[in-house]
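We read letters as residues; the integers encode the fold. Take this protein.
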Amino acid sequence: MQSRKRIQPGLQLALGFLLIITAGAVLLYLPASHQEGVDVSFLDAFFISTSAVCVTGLTPLDISKTLSDFGTTVLMLLIQLGGLGYAVVAVLIIRLASGRIDASSGNLLRDSLGADHKVGTKKLLTLALSVTGIIELIGALLLLIPFSSRYSLGRAVYLSVFHSVSAFNNAGFDLFSDSLMKWNQEPVVLIVIAALIACGGLGFILYGDLLEHFRNGKKISVHTKIVLTTTLFLIAAGTVLFRIILPDVDWKNAFFQSVTTRTAGYFSYDQSALPPAGIALTVILMFIGASPGSTGGGVKTTSFYTAVKASFSLLLGRNPAAFRREISGESVMKAFFVIIISVLLVAVASFLLMVTDPQFGAEEIVYETVSAYATVGLTMGITPGVSSAGKIILIIMMYLGRVGFMTIITAFARRRLSGARYLEEKIIIG
């Protein structure tokens, strides 16, 4: 009897995220999730659930004035599930229920986090849960200091936990109505939130690599070196450029703007007041995003680094290399594939939004589309006014940005070349 064909890990991840989003939408649609006298449509509940599970932060409603404490708690759990990823949650449940993890679940987890298939499943699971728990706890304790000065202890604790979870998972949801505008002169809040965003955007594999380096003296991998150098460069360059572009913004807020564009969604500066150069820089940083296997989105720092390295190497007539290691042709091809397809998706979605919502300017729509696709959550304030058709487009973009390429790249990497072979022909380029 022929065995049933297993669903590919990438497709399992995509379906798993969709299941969590749907369940979250149902919960957020319940009257218990709303404040008294407030009605929320199912489309808006589905939008918010998608935004939470895809750790984006875009919302058509002010959740601080719409959702009850039960609703915001559901939202926080959805953010946590989305940040950890369906694979981590599924494997954890399997582990608790059966006491063991089969090979299929292990492969699903490794594909989700971008880990080498030699890495043990239990080790990966422990790493993801430990890193998340420790960093979020430290973040919550540090945020409790400034929050307790303005709120009662119970409320301050809840706000600290919510915003620590939201920041580490690069979600950007807030309970203040205006993100961090009222905290833009509070260095502790800005630095702690920025640190949580950066830590969540590095990827769980990097933490395992650094742990092995300091514990056993293992050499730091090229992946970790690329992630750290690219991340530091983008944050530093963004800080300096924002400080120049926005002369009325001090260094700490320029630094925060640079960090939050890495797919977080918090803002301490009114995004609708950004000049054209500020909009362009924000869009570029959002599009690049965080690192593989992290809680963030975008085309990823490694794709950006690889594409830039390969381009300069081509100009110089050399093979692309990083830290005395040659970059494989497959990695270069994947990097350009991700970037090109992402540009096309953003272009198509932006065009469709211009058709469905012509009341908004082109730069506002492109900004919103990139923010959705890169799962950032920054907005120039147009989300509440987007039409139902526009919301559906943004929902699709958030979903594709979070889980779409898991499926595409998995199939792309594992599919063997087939079909007829033809004579090679050079194509004139440029």
